[in-house]
Specification:
Length: 462
């Protein structure tokens, strides 16, 4: 049974006590003599239903109704009035009151009204519970066993809790930036709202502003006769995902910055200021720092978009995920194409592990899709993959680096260079001993996995 909480707000003590006694056996009940005291409690503890007297001392019931609905539109309010004043009743209904009852109160009739109201709440809560259960079981997430991707998903679970903090996702082409943006949306308070995707590179520069912010009638040649809402408006109370943000035109960048800072914007050709709430998640595979240096991207917009930054590691940085992903895609496409495969042959697994994944997860998915269509044996074979002549993953060998320690003389030495040579030597040796597994290599050097990955990249080992 779903538990319900009811607030009774009436200045007559007899009504508060009488209604409380009649309801407290079935509901959690709190009683208040003034609207002010009820609202103070309501801010921290939302009830399902409020029985609200119109003729209260101080703040009256109509004023209180407006404030309660402003705090939470989902709270149902039944107004209590001493006489049936049609104008007052209409005002209450316009503000969102569910129903009204007239004094003196008859408990049988009141309980029927309360029961009808709570039935609508029950249905809403059941739908919400089913929706949340579905999302929990079908949340977008990364397939993988590597520590790197587990760290990313754990971080996503933390930062997604805010409904409007901007997030910038950085990663190579094909790493799954849109999937990650979707995971953020469905783990956030905005999950009931829309998830709108905009590929900034796919929209012509002269149209991107009107697509994002909309336009008014006659704003430009070819504008629709009734104007058009933009994608920002379409994403209200949800998430707006701006993919390839590095391709956004400078004019649109300025307008986007203003929206991020104030939540306000104007449609193209419009004079009416609009304000909405949505979270902006952006993504890029470009070096925005270098673009800022070349005056191709606004520095202030970069900082605003990247209040929180998430770096998705490439597939080459997380080899532990290659085979789990391959088997996941094999299962997915086997169902889609009605094929039956027992798995990947050992030779096929070795080929996938040795391949240099320039296109990352997207490339792996495409390769497995093709192989699933053309494979004829119970296991996928190397020849099904079609990567024999592909880009091979060549790991530097320990012999590629000459480990030497110059003698200190009167002219001095470049100590940082010696340190880098030593560090590079042991990182490569650790990778060889761990068969390319970064997590195991980091443990061999008693390093944090994130630090190891950073130092590896810093020393140009990938």
């Amino acid at each position: 049974m779903i538990p319900y909480s009811i607030y009774i707000v009436d200045d007559e003590k007899s009504i508060r006590e009488g209604v409380s006694m009649a309801l407290e056996a079935d509901y959690s009940v709190k009683a208040f003599a003034t609207a002010e005291s009820a609202i103070d409690t309501l801010k921290a503890d939302l009830p399902d239903l409020v029985l609200l007297d119109i003729g209260l001392p101080g703040m009256n019931g109509i004023e209180a109704l407006g404030i309660i609905k402003g705090i939470s539109p989902d709270i149902l309010v039944i107004m209590i009035t001493a006489y049936e004043d049609i104008h007052t009743v209409i005002s209450a209904m316009k503000l969102g009151a569910y129903d009204y009852v007239i004094k003196p109160l008859h408990m049988d009739a009141l309980e029927v009204t309360i029961g009808n109201a709570l039935e609508s709440i029950r249905l809403r809560k059941e739908v919400q519970s089913l929706h949340e259960k579905y999302l929990k079981e079908n949340l977008p997430c990364f397939v993988g066993e590597s520590e790197a991707i587990q760290d990313v998903m754990e971080f996503v679970g933390t930062v997604a809790k805010s409904p409007d903090t901007p997030i910038l996702i950085i990663g190579e082409t094909g790493t799954g930036k849109e999937l990650l943006a979707s995971a953020i949306h469905y783990r956030s308070p905005n999950f009931k709202g829309p998830f709108m995707t905009v590929n900034c590179a796919a929209i012509p520069k002269d149209l991107i502003e009107s697509e994002l912010f909309g336009y008014e009638r006659g704003a430009f040649s070819g504008a629709g006769p009734s104007g058009k809402n933009g994608l920002i408006e379409a994403a209200e109370k949800g998430t707006l995902f701006l993919d390839e943000i590095g391709d956004l035109a400078m004019e649109a960048q300025a307008k986007l910055l203003r929206f991020l800072e104030t939540g306000e914007f104007y449609r193209v050709g419009g004079t009416k200021k609009l304000r909405i709430q949505t979270r902006v998640v952006s993504a890029t595979n470009k070096d925005l720092d270098r673009m800022i240096e070349k005056a191709l991207f606004r520095k202030d917009l970069y900082f605003r978009l990247g209040v929180i930054k998430i770096q998705i590691p490439s597939l080459n940085e997380r080899p532990d995920d290659i085979l789990p992903l391959a088997n996941h895609f094999l299962s997915e496409f086997s169902r889609k194409f009605d094929r039956s495969f027992t798995g990947l042959s050992p030779q096929a697994e070795n080929a996938l592990m040795a391949y240099r994944w320039i296109g990352n997860v997207r490339e792996l998915k495409n390769i497995i899709e093709r192989a699933t269509l053309i494979g004829r044996k119970p296991e996928l074979q190397v020849e099904d993959l079609g990567i024999e002549s592909g880009h091979k993953l060549e790991t530097p060998k320990q012999a590629d680096i000459k480990l030497s320690f110059p003698s200190l003389n009167d002219t001095g030495i470049d100590l940082s260079s010696v340190q880098e040579t030593l560090e590079k030597h042991y990182i490569i040796q650790a990778l060889e001993m761990a068969d390319g597994n970064e997590s195991k290599a980091a443990k061999l050097l008693n390093m944090n996995h994130h630090t190891f990955r950073y130092r590896k990249k810093k020393l140009l080992l990938e």
